[in-house]
Amino acid sequence: MAKLWFKFQRYFRRKPVRFFTFLVLYLTAGSLVFLHAGFAGQPAVPQSQASAAVGAPAEGAELPFLGDLHLGRGFRDAGDAASIARRYGPWFKGKDGNERAKLGDYGGGAWSRALKGRVVREKEEERAKYIGCYLDDTQSRALRGVSFFDYKKMTVFRCQDNCAERGYLYAGLEFGAECYCGHKIQATNVSEAECDMECKGERGSLCGGANRLSVYRLQLAQESARRYGSAVFRGCFRRPDNLSLALPVTAAMPNMSVDKCVDLCTEKEYPLAALAGTACHCGFPTTRFPLHEREDEQLCAQKCSAEEFESCGTPSYFIVYQTQVQDNRCMDRRFLPAKSKQLIALASFPGAGNTWARHLIELATGFYTGSYYFDGSLYNKGFKGERDHWRSGRTICIKTHESGQKEIEAFDAAILLIRNPYKALMAEFNRKYGGHIGFAAHAHWKGKEWPEFVRNYAPWWATHTLDWLKFGKKVLVVHFEDLKQDLFVQLGRMVRLLGVAVREDRLLCVESQKDGNFKRSGLRKLEYDPYTADMQKTISAYIKLVDAALKGRNLTGVPHDYYPR
């Protein structure tokens, strides 16, 4: 044995490169074994729990069928809690091959049948929601923005896309070939049977009727933006009462154009450019000019003297653009000057808009938010509280996706952010496979990953809310959809809970910079609904449970667009 060892030493002494190569390979192999052991040790969903979770509850079922699922920190049994590190979070994938195989009706034939059975209106749901059939009058249009006609190739999607691209809230189709856009519906609703004309470019789809509009509310209207060069169109607004205070810079422009006014206000370093016929005004959004009450664009429809196809407003009604100048009134952020005496959670299911809400809170309060986890990409994008321990007391609130009594009771108060589960699940799936602002690949949606993800995460959406309502102290419920629709009011509620004085001018500043760096583009949408009929049945049952729990505590139930699908 000693002779063999001597030969081994002499071999590597003569060939030191071989020795170091051998050493590197040895260390690499050891590292791989270590990593494999670490991943293999992650907990998976017990079969008994997974089976119970996926089926819709029987008639009159009580909450305990969800209560046994401890999903907040990796779908583990309660007895395993001590063995799981805090920073694992919920983002792992079970390794149990048998579990992957038992997906029931979520895969195979049911998937294909569900896709084949979709009608056009359901396909459009991700980008627009059908509102109804409305009366239209050539003398007084129901939608008074831009319009265009195509008597050969008009489709529902083409009309929606054109209106969304210009930043309008509504799109309406008429006579099978006419498309109208607008921010308000100024007409009465009529019977669906009156919108009976087929689209010229799309058989099987309805595009209004004779003096009747098929109207859609555009889901992407706030995500896309109507632009003029680098400036973002904000709308038509009534002249403020005290013009010199509301918009402090004014310049006469006999040859008015959008370019000239926007360039002037950019040069003067103001974020708003207001065109008023032959005058250009610059300023900030303030309580004197908050940009909350849009007027009919027809009131601003005076053509620019130097631009044939653009409106430049009138002395009484201004066309307003947002320039590329950053509104710095809400950009200062710092840690709390003294250690906070209470821990306030910003709690949500993954994919419910927690990072966006943190961005809004930081701008509105001027203080950094913290996190129960650590995400280097968020820290590098400016969330400096990400690196602090969540109990440091230096941040205004703490992001968390945790659920379960012990984790929830660690906080003194909470903002509970709830989002439509259909949207939240898709957002988290995109984050899981595409990053914070990326998208999951087509193969992930069509493969095993998506049905397994829904199977595991859908019940957690319900248990997360139910646990926070049951165990949370001083919980403020905020619906993502309400925050998006009425940011000024909802963000004000959140700031008040955090114990910070609400400054209206600062909230107005936040409104103009609300998107931040982690807003996923709304332009890339799936061409189909990824939810099968069985998935929808299960998720609808969870929605009803959450709705009942909210109403049982005298809170507003879930928004109406959560269901039916």
Automatic annotation (TrEMBL):
Q: Which PROSITE patterns match?
A: WSC
The residues covered by the WSC domain are: 127-219, 230-324
Which keywords fit this entry according to its UniProt record?
A: Repeat
Return the SUPFAM superfamilies for the record: P-loop containing nucleoside triphosphate hydrolases
Pfam families referenced in this protein's UniProt entry, alphabetically: WSC (PF01822)
Q: Which residues form the signal peptide?
A: none
Alphabetized InterPro entries for the sequence: P-loop_NTPase, Sialate-O-sulfotransferase, WSC_carb-bd
The UniProt entry's sequence similarity note says:
Belongs to the WSCD family.
Tell me what this protein is called: WSC domain containing 2
